[in-house]
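TL;DR need structure tokens for one chain.
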Amino acid sequence: MTLKPDPTLEPEPFRIAVASLDALQAVAEAMAQAMPGDAFVTLTGDLGAGKTTFVKALAAAAGIDPREVISPTFGLMHLHSLPGGGPARRLLHADLYRLSGPADLAEIGWDDAVAAPGWVLVEWPDRAGNVLPADRLEIEIQIDSETGRTLLLTPRGLLHEQLVASVRERVQEGLAAITASPPKGLLRGLSDI
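>> reply
TL;DR here they are.
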């Protein structure tokens, strides 16, 4: 007999405490290495929590100049080409803060933009209502201090469950390296809580 997961159970989020921008960059690097060619990531958190900062860190880890990644609050969506010709050829960064609801999505070309292959990162996803794909990664960013944040990674669907498992493994490998030697470089201030 094969047991299948109960789809009615809420997935347990993977919590990562980051104490600095360097630690956030380390998480973004782990995620960029693990991301499949097509991924849909939502980012939630208060104003100033670091949603765009996380997108910049992920873009930098993928080889995009982080100075090119700015909050698309007024443009709503920015498209970035990923260098290197890997499985993900583009990163779409959307900020839906200014939308009043899902009806506004048609006006910004949402369907065509998210249908193309690549990585889609969406800030303020609640504005999209129920049009988000079922298979996605939800990242909630909680403010702990001026520089400290807690990231809660909640996978929805098999593809993103695999992504979170890979990120968890990479973060834990990084923590093991910190434990084995004095903290140096990007993993300083990172903990799996």
